[in-house]
Amino acid sequence: MNKVLEAAGISKAFGDKKVLENVNISLNKGEIVSLLGVSGVGKTTLFHILSGLSCPDEGKVLFNGERDITGVPGSVSYMLQKDLLLPYKKVADNVAMPLILNGMKRKDAVAKVNDLFDEFGIEGTQGMYPAELSGGMRQRAAHLRTYVASKGVALLDEPFSALDTITKKMIHKWFLDVMGKIDLSVFFITHDIDEAITLSDRIYVLGGSPGQVVKEIDLGGKMKKDFELTPEFLKVKKEVIEALEI
Predict the structure, then answer these.
(1) How far apart are the C-alpha atoms of 32 and 159, rounded to whole Å?
(2) Which among 195, 210, 219 is positioned nearest to 46, based on CA atoms?
(3) Potential cystine with 137: which of 73, 129, 133, 161 (Cβ 3.0-4.6 Å)?
């Protein structure tokens, strides 16, 4: 498999408290891989290291199988829990912001992202302000901005946690549809076991103190349609729950 992002032997401590110990995870091209674990196990710390915002005490981060990007931000895009859309800018300007910040003229940047709005299911929102969008539409706009900023790899930190159950299910379907059309590989953090199983090609379960990988579950590229209604889904869920020791 073609590894696009890899954390090799990552350990991290803050003062006397060791947060991560010898974490080894990888993301292959085109995959959706989730990091699942209880609060405080070090998932966000690991994302900070993967994104280059923080340096590990031990280990390294590799991009596209060979380039060492440990402590070097900008190689992958990182979407936080909140959509962080600027309320005083129109949606098109929000989505184009990564290109503008990289020096592209606003007019050219907006024109470049305009065609992507239809692909992400938000055609017609370009001239609107974030406050005029529903929670689900804001989430789609934020995902589009993350895609625009990415170099084929994105980190999503609990991207659907703020949505209600019905909206979340709709967004899950949308997310899988979009991922089938675009060239993007995704690591995402979630506390939602069902969400991890529904969306992921593989799941890393983090546990312990300090945090480490206690289980890797390969879902084998299963068809996701109505997967949550199958006995196999419940079997995987039981496996995750046992790994989490909850």
Answers:
(1) 13
(2) 210
(3) 133
User: Both ends of the chain: CA-CA distance in Å?
Assistant: 33
Which two three-digit tokens encode residue 147? Answer: 């895609």
What gap in Å lies between CA 59 and CA 210, rounded to an integer?
Answer: 15
The greatest distance separating any two alpha carbons of the chain, rounded to the nearest whole angstrom, comes to: 53
Amino acid at 167: T
Instruction: Report the chain's C-alpha Rg in angstroms.
Output: 18
In the Cβ-directed half-sphere of 52, how many Cα atoms lie within 13 Å? 16
Closest-CA residue to 120 (of 189, 76, 184, 74): 184
3-state secondary structure of 117: helix
Residue 220: which residues within 8 A CB-CB, separation 6 or more?
none
Q: What is the pLDDT of residues 57-113, one digit of tens each?
A: 999 999 987 789 998 888 888 887 677 788 899 999 998 988 888 888 989 889 988
Interatomic CA distance for residues 238 and 121, integer angstroms? 34
Beta strand pairing call for 17-28 and 3-14: antiparallel
Determine how β-strand 185-190 pairs with β-strand 32-36.
parallel
Contact between 55 and 61 under an 8 Å Cβ cutoff? The reply is no
pTM: 0.85
